[in-house]
């Protein structure tokens, strides 16, 4: 069966520090992968998606970037965090015709 | 940005009652519709999906879709306290475009 892993579960980072969140998927090949952010009181916002190694699409301009160095690995990064980057970050993969399955998420607090 | 609208609630129902959750969407080209449940502090989990007009039943859950009215709903029969959560409606308009509403918080009162 397919599983999706995200880490870390929680993170507290100072403003201006770098960020790296990692997501890996097991049990499938060439998955479509997604990064969403859920800010307090707001819906899930699609940040990036990837349909293959090295292929990244950005949905909104922001302080973040994404990379896909391997087929089942998706990384979310920032060079310098802002207070507004705080939120609940969720990685997801798409199973054809069955919607998106989410990882357990990373709660990021920028202080 | 495609719009997906949900009543934020909170919606409170007594245990054993039917909970009715509603969602409207703006893009007539939307193809697939999903309901996710999210417990506080946890990630969303998929509970239902529907592609065609009409009803789709799965256990205590029924999803209803009306594309002409751009409306999708979720009914939860025999509501249990464990159903207390935020329910997210999601609408897919393309292969990689899944848009979420802000969710409806449901509380089932024992």
- Which consecutive residue ranges of chain B, at least 5 long each, have pLDDT under 50? none
User: Mind summarizing the main beta sheet of chain B?
Assistant: 6 strands, mixed
Stretches with pLDDT under 50, minimum 5 residues of chain A: none
- Element order, helices and strands of chain B? EEEEEEEEEEE
Mean pLDDT of chain B: 93
What is the number of E strands of chain B?
11
Number of helices of chain B: 0
Q: What would the principal axes of the Cα set say about the shape of chain B? A: globular
What structural class do the secondary elements of chain B suggest? mainly beta
Largest sheet of chain A: 7 strands, mixed
How many angstroms separate the termini of chain A? Answer: 38 Å
Q: Name the overall outline of chain A.
A: globular
Computed Rg of chain B: 13 Å
What is Rg of chain A? 13 Å
The structural class of chain A is mainly beta
Number of strands of chain A: 11
Distance between the termini of chain B: 39 Å
Question: How much helix is in the residues of chain A?
Answer: under 10%
How much of the sequence lies in strands of chain B comes to over 45%
Number of helices of chain A: 0
Describe this structure as you would to a colleague.
The complex is a heterodimer of chains A (111) and B (110). The model of chain A has no long low-confidence stretch (mean pLDDT 92). Chain A is built from no helices and 11 strands. In chain A, the strands form 2 sheets. In chain A, strands 2, 4, 5, 6, 9, 10 and 11 form a 7-stranded mixed β-sheet that branches. Chain A has 111 residues and is mostly beta strands. In chain B, 0% of the residues lie in helices and 58% in strands. Chain B is built from no helices and 11 strands. In chain B, the strands form 2 sheets. In chain B, strands 2, 4, 5, 9, 10 and 11 form a 6-stranded mixed β-sheet that branches. In chain B, strands 1-3-8-7-6 form a 5-stranded antiparallel β-sheet, with no helix packed on it. Chain B is globular, with a radius of gyration of 13 Å. Classes of the chains: A mainly beta (111), B mainly beta (110). Chains A and B meet through strand 5 and strand 10 of A and strand 5, strand 9 and strand 10 of B.
